[in-house]
Amino acid sequence: MSDKPIGDLRRRMIADMTIRTFSDKTQREYIRQIEAFASFLGRSPDTATGDDIRRFQFAQVEQGAQPPKMNSQASALRFLFTVTLGRADLAHQLARTHYPRKLPRVLAPDEVARLIEAAPGPGLKHKAALSVAYGAGLRGCEVVMLRIGDIDSKRMLIRVELGKGRKDRHAMLSPQLVELLRAWWRQCRSRGWLFPGRDPLQPMTVRQLNRVCHMAAEAAGLGSWVTP
């Protein structure tokens, strides 16, 4: 969105998303989709018509866009038209693509044990991080943002701040996981992040955790499809 009218529209849309506490990731994705729509139109999206929307979605199908991408575009455009532009009539023109969702592949308990045992060293850092992800059911982004103070061994809980939907919640902490985390703390002696990155003042990144998981899966002979 380079010209001034589109720039103004972008700022308004970002403000609308910020007011509704959309995550940074969602905001970037929505803006990216609106920029693609603007590029297709060759003009500001606030001049769009129902026929423009139809042409855009038809062009996406012809280009081989998959259902997840189509639905992401529809969500971004629906927000733009309904909230930022106050043109809900155009939002009704947007079609969502329904498709069968397959059950995810999951590891058997013994495979999980092999994966965690194969976590690369030195030390217990990566083994502990993968154990938290599995044992407490945390997403990768939640694991890396944990602090020492989030582990409540008295109540056997893990405090997860700003998890999915930017909501705080508690996850259960097992006795085995408590002992592993204590052993890890005795090694790292961190007073901040539970899993510090290369720079101790910064947490381990999600990318690093993903890389560790893939390395462990390969070492355990489980295949490249395994992710945190």
Task: Kindly summarize this structure in a few lines.
The chain is mostly helical. The chain has ten helices and three strands, in the order H-H-H-H-H-H-H-H-E-E-E-H-H. It has a three-stranded antiparallel β-sheet, with no helix packed on it.
Description:
The protein has 228 residues and is mainly α. Helices cover 54% and strands 4% of the residues. It contains 10 helices and 3 strands, in the order ααααααααβββαα. The chain has helices at residues 4-19, 24-41, 50-62, 67-84, 88-91, 109-117, 125-135, 140-144, 175-188, 206-219, and strands at 151-152, 157-160, 169-172. The chain has a 3-stranded antiparallel sheet, with no helix packed on it. Strand 1 and strand 2 form a beta hairpin. Helix 2 (24-41) packs across helix 4 and helix 7 (125-135) packs antiparallel against helix 9. It is elongated, with a radius of gyration of 22 Å. The model is unreliable at 1-5 (pLDDT under 50).
- Describe the sheet with the most strands: 3 strands, antiparallel
Residue runs with pLDDT of under 50 for 5 or more positions? 1-5
Q: Give the topology string: H per helix, E per strand.
A: HHHHHHHHEEEHH
Spatial sequence of strands, sheet with the most strands: 1-2-3
Rg, nearest Å: 22 Å
Attribute tags:
single chain; 228 residues; mainly alpha; 3-stranded antiparallel β-sheet; 10 helices; 4% strand; disordered N terminus
Describe the secondary structure blueprint for this structure.
Layout: H1 4-19, H2 24-41, H3 50-62, H4 67-84, H5 88-91, H6 109-117, H7 125-135, H8 140-144, E1 151-152, E2 157-160, E3 169-172, H9 175-188, H10 206-219
Helix pairs in contact: 2-4, 6-10, 7-9
